[in-house]
Amino acid sequence: MKLPRRRREPEEARGEILDAAERVLAERPPDAVGLADIARDAGVSHALVSHYFGTYVGVVDAVLERRRAAVRARMMARIAKADLVDLDELLDALFEALSDRTFVRLSLWALAAERPSASEGFPLPAQGMRLLAEAIVERLGDRRAETRRRIEQAMVVAGSAVFGYVVARGAWMGALGREPSAAFDRSVRRAIGEMLRGFTAPLAEGAT
């Protein structure tokens, strides 16, 4: 016997659908999933999923937005609690975010499909990178245009380097004749940190 569907408040229903989408998308690639799969996992109708998100792409975009918002919140918290802006802390947060295979896979899918949401920036959407840059400027207490420019460039370089390494790690290790290892991961992370410290060194000099 088919059980009656449980009535939910709108925000509760939307949240449960997103939870279901994350579970399904963690197990299968985006191209192998549809609205019906997500609706089934959430225990709601296909029509209700469409009501809240419009299309399947809308669901994926919403999952990415929620995960990106979580990344932004963690980074903002690290900046707020530290006495100084710690580059190593921010790199750790970025590597931590990109250890989420589902997050990376969905981001690649959005970029490959040239989704409008992908053009908003990685790893933080809705001008989240701008918000992060502003928080760093505020913490440094240095509002020079050159400071803002260098911070923005450093963020783009760090994001590109870390994202590229995480995505192509296996292929690059194979091309080098190496096996992937935690030790090599740490060496790459140190190298990125050293390059960024060299680039941002003038900021510390200007603050003295």
- Write down the overall mean pLDDT: 82
Poorly predicted ranges:
117-125
Major sheet attributes = none
Following the backbone from N to C, one meets helices and strands in this order, namely HHHHHHHHH
The separation of the N and C termini measures 74 Å
What structural class do the secondary elements suggest?
Answer: mainly alpha
| Tally of structural domains | 2
Q: What is the number of strand segments?
A: 0
User: How much helix is in the residues?
Assistant: over 70%
Strand content: under 5%
Put simply, the count of helices is 9
Rg from C-alpha positions? 20 Å
Shape: globular
Report on this structure.
The model is unreliable at 117-125 (pLDDT under 50). It is built from 9 helices and no strands. It folds into 2 domains: 10-54, Orthogonal Bundle (Arc Repressor Mutant, subunit A); 72-207. The chain is an all-alpha fold. The longest helix is centred in the last third of the chain and has 31 residues, at 145-175. It starts with 9 loop residues before the first helix and ends with a helix.
